[in-house]
Amino acid sequence: MASAETAAEHERILREIESTDTNCIGPTLRSVYDGQEHGLFMEKLEGRIRNHDREIEKMCNHHFQGFVDSITELLKVRGEAQKLKGQVTETNRKLQSDGKELLTTMDELKQCRLQQRNIATTIDKLTHCLPVLEMYSRLQEQMRTKRYYPALCTLEQLEHTCLPKAGGYRFCAIMAENIPVLRTHIRDVSMSDLKDFLESIRKHSDKIGETAMKQAQVQNSRDSDVTHQQRTGSGRRLRKEAGSGTEVDRSGGSPLSEQDSGILDVEDEEDDEVPGAQDLVDFSPVYRCLHIYTVLGARDTFENYYRKQRRKQARLVLQPHSNMHETLEGYRRYFNQIVGFFVVEDHILHTTQGLVNRAYVEELWELALSKTIAALRTHSSYCTDPDLILDLKNLIVLFADTLLGYGFPVNQLFDMLLEMRDQYGEILLKKWNQSFRQIIDQDNYSPIPVATEEEYRRITGQFPFQDPELEKMSFPKKLPFSEFVPKVYSQLKEFIYACLKYSEDLHLSSTEIDDMIRKSTNLLLTRTLSNCLQYAIKKKNVGLAELVQIIVNTTHLEASCHYLEEFISNITSVPPDTVNATKLYGTSTFKDARHSAEEEIYTNLNLKIDQFLQLADYDWMATQGGGQASDYLIDLIAFLCSTFAVFTHLPGSPIEHARLPGKVAQTACMSACKHLSTSLLQLLLEADVRQVSMGALQQFNVDVKECERFARAGPVPGFQGDTLLLAFIDLRQLLDLFTQWDWSTYLADYGRPTCKYLRVNPHVALALLEKMKDTSRKNNMFAQFRKNERDKQKLIDTVVKQLRNLIATHQS
């Protein structure tokens, strides 16, 4: 069993040796030497070698004859090969000799092809480099001539198109390094130009605004002419032309300009005399800078900078000078600057895309509108000249119309003008107050003498006065009123004209204008003229004749009020009977003035009476009265008679309106008599008069009788019966009671309607009795020797006691 395995193993090793590379036979042989049957393996190996040798020998014997034949053929071929070699060598020699010239030609061709390729390469490179050099040269020329926007476009093309095609040459690298420097330089220079532009428009905004406002004024004049022609019936074609002209002007005021210069052509050929407002400024720096910053990718930075700077300029423009209110030129410069500012902004809005937008411009306009209105309110409040206010109003209207033509809302400006209307009215009232006072101070308070027909027509042309009776009279003659009346009436018309001037061009309806004029005229009548009339009535040293003339004057002015109503209706084209139309208060004003004058007449008369009464010098201890009235009272009666004679015998007595109305004269006379009666009673009862004798009462009674004689004489016609005597009835009954000593009747009938002494007040009677009792006591030492004096004293005491009881009874 073991020998079979050994034999099988040796067989395997032998097969492995036969089939394995000799380099790898080591491990196989080692396995043989590691085993115990080394000899047996060697025997088998030798047997195997012998077998292979026998096979090799058999194979050699089999192929030997073919090998010999092959050698023999090979020896034959060697000779032929030597001969062929010689022929090939000769052929090669001949070929080399013949191809030498061809090789030379080929080398020359190769060299030419190389030169041709180099030339083509050079041409190609130059084709890419020459545009770079030409463009760089153009860039330098544009920079030298300060054409920065084309230079920036050239720079962009050079950087992004030409240099990448040219390749990595040294000059290209130098150019590439200079590109950021050039770009920065262009940006800085354009910004410098923009700053110069902003400074320029700041300086020229006044001139720009002035030109724009002149254009608006010319346009308004043209529109007014066209409107007038339309009203006359000849303007259909003119209206069409005016409408198209307006559209041209408005569209020309802010067109979209594609030119780099930014100068607008806003005028037609027919209007060359007024240049376009934007023609005064070259806008090209703005457009260049905008394009440059857009190309540089910094448009937002440029927009923010421009808007920031313009806002600062707007605040400077909107800041008025402290003395702007002194002259109209101050306001004009202020408006010109604002208009110039917004004309520029409107032009920038319409000629650039997005540099400023509508919201930005509207924001600036809102700021400008609020500050302008505030400034105008402040500065106009200092103005006291109505002419300056009127010129300012016209300037504001032109300012508003100018900006309205550029599309800015101006309603607030017109609202402010309506507010200024009240201030203008107040200034007018102050001015007319001075005029009225000057007229009053210069008036002679005498009827106007008229010597000729021309003079009469001149005065009646100033004041609507008609009197058929006066016209029938021959010259010379006198008008019933003084110079005050036509002058005041003319001033009223001038005031109405002044109010009308302010209302023009405010886009108000005729009804609104009419209402405004009527309200202002009412203020003039009720405040200014009324105060001036009161001033004329109340001023010092005004006489009764002057007061009478004032009453006559106000009467005629009152009658002229309906002519003023018609005058206002004619200039406003609003019928006076329009619903809700304001009525003039002239009638009430002149009535009130007339009543004040009448009251002043009464007051002055009473003051004169008081002055005469101050001259009274009664001897209150007189034993008996005199036979005639006191001197002061005689003078007083004479004064009253002359005064009432003046009242009722003014020049032109046949003409009723030239006389003090009878009722006023009667009232004045009654008032004077009542005041005289009351003053005489007060004189009798005043505290300084401690004692009154019966003789003094008798003298007092004589004076009262003189007063009654004056009243009975009828100093003023029109009183019925003894009406005027009633003014002295209280005093008469009191004196009759004391002089007749009829106390029994008084005490018995007191309180009855039929009492004889109904007008005697028991308190007054008691006070007077007390004065008489004191007189009796003073003379008591003499009275004891005279029985009648003692009886009289007892009687006075008894009456005093009864009066006190009577007063106490009625009080309880």
TrEMBL record:
The residue ranges of the Exocyst complex subunit EXOC6/Sec15 C-terminal domain are 412-771
Q: Which Gene3D superfamilies match?
A: Dsl1p vesicle tethering complex, Tip20p subunit, domain D (1.20.58.670), Exocyst complex subunit Sec15 C-terminal domain, N-terminal subdomain (1.10.357.30)
What positions does the domain Exocyst complex component EXOC6/Sec15 N-terminal occupy?
44-213
* Cellular component terms per the entry's GO annotation: exocyst; plasma membrane
One biological-process term from Gene Ontology? vesicle tethering involved in exocytosis
Give the record's keywords alphabetically.
Exocytosis, Transport
Q: Where is this region: Disordered?
A: 213-262
The task this protein performs is described as: Component of the exocyst complex involved in the docking of exocytic vesicles with fusion sites on the plasma membrane.
So what family is this one in? Belongs to the SEC15 family.
* Protein name as it appears in the record: Exocyst complex component
Specify the species.
Answer: Pygocentrus nattereri (Red-bellied piranha)
